[in-house]
Amino acid sequence: MTDLAERLDRLEARNAVAELIYTYARHIRRDEPDQVSALFLPDGTFEIRDGHPDQPEFTVREFHRSAQEVHDYMAPAKGRRHPLPLIRNLIVEIDGDTAMANSVMDAKIYGTPHTTMGEYRDVCQRVDGRWYFKARLFTIYKDASAV
């Protein structure tokens, strides 16, 4: 690839990964949890922790080993109280067909006075021109959430 083509590919990839992350948040906000698993590779993982992302001490709340497990976890939540996530401070690093992303999420829990805040660390993979989550790690800030 030429330098210009590589730069353009990196910019388009960065935008596509950001769209993937924002699409996930939109599905959660719109109470469409059954749509979320399509954003993961079939063997994509999703882990939810309590703690702090930069500290070695944490507790695993949930660990899902595949897109099907993500679906089985999320789909039954339709119609229930759910977060209204706002994604902030998104940083995306591209390396060919792999991307690393980091973002902060804070959310009010719809229908409650509760809020939650945490950090996503994502590994994304491009397959046939489309980006998916390969691994999604969400750490809920232990002292900044009421859920």
TrEMBL record:
Q: Which domain of life is it from?
A: Bacteria
Record's signal peptide: none
Residue ranges occupied by any SnoaL-like domain in the UniProt entry: 10-136
Q: Provide the protein name.
A: Nuclear transport factor 2 family protein
Taxonomic lineage from the root: Bacteria, Pseudomonadati, Pseudomonadota, Alphaproteobacteria, Sphingomonadales
